[in-house]
Specification:
- The structure is a homodimer.
- The first copy, chain A, contains 11 helices and 25 strands.
- Chain A is an alpha+beta fold.
- In chain A, a hairpin with a 6-residue loop joins strand 19 and strand 20.
- The longest helix of chain A has 14 residues.
- The relative contact order of chain A is 0.18.
Chain lengths: ~425, ~425
């Protein structure tokens, strides 16, 4: 059996800068492409990327009995499908190889050939997203949006505390950090006229986290809350871009569609639940009590700090939101138990996002819609201008990390610049 | 240039029974597996399946310059991605090879080795469904459902005649005809109690047709109504299974989720728009006028007859619905122009379903919800029992065909038996 946790006292022979998101205890998985090479699997360590394919072909991972070429693929799906034992085995083995106390790789003359500086590689989508589901699991966000559109008394719909509300999203348009996002066009409905066609005027981000399915299930199979964690290969930061005006006009009665499907953006590094294990916390008391299939034991929420920065052209980025993953009312294992309660099958690479994660204070709201309260409270920008929603040329940066007792497990960031409609 | 239409007077040297869905003028694409062979691509002709891989490897398709092994794959995606010129070229070449007036293949001693009896092969999913979108484009259906839930005056939502309302669905649980469908469990909300957990009591079918994308598009690209047809590789019958009680409780405000995602069923043969060309008809007058990006020229609706049969255990099937694809208010090219108006990218194998296709008369309603009018008008069954919704052991059969001047272009059927919840 492989341990879930890599002891916090262990250090790597690779230099890990103070405050790095990627110490030896993290080792998140990703897909990278060196200058003129092919895409392959890697792990982040400090400011370096470990070339897993090179380690594998050189025999350093031989004891794991992995298939040939498993890390030479341009997505992680096949490896994730192998299940938690395989992910844990890899993470532990790589931690051993890069441990300062272990001469095995450290003593090899060409040890540096297994590393690429993070700044010199291109990070790609870590997985082929098979199906994508978006939940709506933050009480703060659901309450804010409900209050704006239906008033405070009717903010939460009657079903909201009985089940994790969710909907299917568009998988094809999920892109990785650094890829630019184009302002969508569509139908907008001014209050005083027939619908018109044009670029969205109310472009927004949504601060979310997502988890990725490793081992799938066949149709008819339910996953209990106690089984769910073994299916979760890791987590990403997720920016669920939203065109509020397109969405408002189209979404009744069947839900969000083109107001979302133009793009969603993810961070490139898949952080395992094992790496996040030290940051488990209790969730909120769920009242009314949930049905038995949604009950769970132990702490299943995570204390992950979240931050959104907005960078407008020519200015330094400013922090506009600080939130936390623990603000979720429904946790990931409840979401997964719910998703499969009807026998819906899962596949490796399925991505499930949390919904916007807003806290209770105004500076913790996870979207411009909430931060500017429908545009009634514009945010001041460093150049004296203000923002109600996102403008062309703006860059939205989301960061996430967990930190405690000197251990920091980070996600890096998802950063996206908005291009004008074409 | 390849012709779109195969002349109606041409006959095959393969016997095509009277009333067959699959004359030489159809030649739909599918994936089949002979008794102990591998899955491969085929075309239906009469009661036979043409082995496209065998024709390709024997050189009969050499003039088409197709990649090696293109028909040895277990899905059609790569071939469909090649675009309309490739599909047309193949259909015309196969029509020539099987034309009674052409000795080329007819004169070959082992000509029968290219054919398998339809009854002796297993038909599989024709495509890997990349992303799945369901529209809501029949005015009859939207009016019926709206009337039931909001009253006659507010039946259609304000957006309905301005845009083809649609939503993202679950791609992974789309299965092919003959695969059994298990009754889902989930949260149900009785009027007089808190939500409960159990098998759906209101299992329903929805009579739909779907189209499959061939050549995809990149993000940011819009497809105009005049470009749309070239991206549609063909059509299937689509049964959008629905658990009305799960759906009713969960769907506000973000749309259908677990009430749909347990299963959808498709017919196995992908019928090309070229084969359906003789059956184009004008659509309804759209009033209010649509925005320019939804305008189109020519006849873009299709006169395709639709039929639902219900077979309860121990009884002969009875026809419970007769509808027509021309009942759609929004046609496929409008749906596609709308889907891409925000720059959402398309991929080969994307599947877009019509929404339930109901006409205006009670016998043309495309779901049990409408046929039994929420259970208030049960349907009489041959054994004296009645049906408000679908029971365990029931088999739902949907058929579709176009017919005119002695030419019949059919889809075969999608047939699914319901298993009890487990």
């Amino acid at each position: 059996m492989h341990a879930a946790i890599i002891d916090a006292t262990r250090k790597s022979w690779v230099h890990v800068p103070e405050g790095s998101d990627f110490p030896l205890q993290n080792l998140p998985l990703g897909i990278f492409r060196p200058g003129n090479g092919l895409a392959r699997a890697g792990m982040a360590l400090g400011d370096q990327v470990i070339d897993l394919n090179a380690l594998h072909t050189s025999g350093f991972l031989a004891a794991l009995n992995l298939p040939d070429g498993i890390f030479a693929q341009p997505v992680l799906n096949d490896f994730l499908a192998m299940g938690r034992t395989a992910w844990r085995g890899l993470r532990n083995r790589v931690a051993d190889l890069f441990d300062a106390a272990n001469p095995e790789l450290q003593g090899v003359p060409d040890k540096d050939s297994y590393l690429f500086p993070l700044g010199e590689v291109q990070l790609q989508m870590p997985v082929f997203v098979r199906d994508y589901t978006d939940f709506y699991s933050s009480e703060g966000h659901a309450t804010n949006v409900g209050t704006m559109f239906r008033g405070k008394e009717n903010a939460l719909m009657p079903n909201w505390k009985h089940l994790p509300v969710g909907y299917h999203g568009r998988a094809s348009s999920i892109v990785v950090s650094s890829q630019e996002v184009r302002r969508p066009k569509g139908q907008l409905k001014p209050d005083d006229s027939s619908p018109i066609y044009g670029p969205s005027r109310l472009l927004d981000f949504e601060l979310e986290m997502a988890f990725v399915i490793g081992e799938g299930t066949s149709m008819g199979k339910q996953i209990s809350t106690s089984e769910a964690e073994a299916h979760i290969a890791g987590m990403l930061i997720f920016n669920d871009w939203s065109a509020r005006d397109i969405q408002k006009w189209e979404y009744v009665p069947l839900g969000p569609f083109l107001g979302k499907s133009f793009a969603s953006s993810v961070s490139p590094w898949l952080v395992s639940l094992d790496a996040l294990e030290p940051f488990r916390v209790a969730g909120p008391v769920q009242d009314p009590p949930v049905l038995p299939y949604l009950e769970y034991e132990g702490d299943a929420h995570y204390d992950i700090q979240l931050e959104v920065l907005l960078e407008i052209p020519g200015q330094e980025p400013v922090t506009i939101c600080r939130s936390n993953h623990r603000n979720l009312y429904w946790n990931m294992i409840q979401q997964l138990a719910h998703h499969t309660v009807n026998g819906c099958n899962l596949n490796p690479g399925d991505l499930m996002a949390s919904g916007t994660i807003s806290g209770t204070t105004p500076d913790s709201f996870g979207s411009m819609l909430e931060l500017s309260w429908r545009g009634t409270k514009p945010l001041p920008m460093p150049d004296g201008s203000e923002r109600k929603f996102i403008q062309d040329g703006d860059t939205v940066i989301m960061r996430a990390w967990a930190e405690k007792d000197g251990l920091r497990i980070g996600f890096g960031e998802v950063r996206s610049t908005v291009l004008p409609a074409n």
